[in-house]
Amino acid sequence: MKKMLVMAMMMVMTISANAMSYTAAKNEALFLSDKMAYELNLTDAQYDAVYEINLDYLMSVNGAGDVFGTWWSRRNADLRYVLTGWQYDKYAALGYFYRPLNWERGSWVFNIYSHYTNRIHFYKARPTVFISYKGGNNRKAGHFYADRRVVKPAPKAPAARLSHNSSTWRVTNAGNAHRNATTVRTNGHSNGNRQMAMNTNRNGNGNSHFGGRR
Length: 214
Description:
Layout: H1 2-13, E1 14-16, H2 22-40, H3 44-60, H4 70-82, H5 85-93, H6 95-98, E2 101-104, E3 107-110, E4 162-164, E5 169-171, E6 176-179, E7 183-187, E8 193-200, E9 206-210
Antiparallel strand pairs: 1-3, 2-3, 4-5, 6-7, 7-8, 8-9
């Protein structure tokens, strides 16, 4: 039984060499893009663009030399235009996204299946361009996505960031804060007791300093 499951997995992970058909490429691009949308928190507009970019790449490879060749580099360049900085960094750190294809024994190997083994599970509906887009944006002069307005998620707030407004003070790093009229004393886990002076101007807005530094 185990041997049969391994054989079945190999069948869905590989496709014979040479250029992929449009049908094969779009189905593989859909599965890959769906997982990227899930892990990278893509907006709907990003999801459409990522699907197009993945489809272009898969339809352009013809042999082992194309796996990490010109079309792979073009894919990465196009993705830089549609992903935020943190999304691209995460994408590049995950091998099954960054290197979606390998060439083994004359067949394409789709690395996404090493992490997502359920071939029929999807997190999102199909992108709106799944039926209409037939490929080719990566063969146009320049970068098609450089001038395309793609809605992106809001940037992530830095960890351990201090924020305040006119009525509240919130410490988001380790420690418990206590506020009185002039000071905030923080009982940190590693630095002991620290005192932060609050200089208040006439409008009631405070400027804060830890140890004399901004």
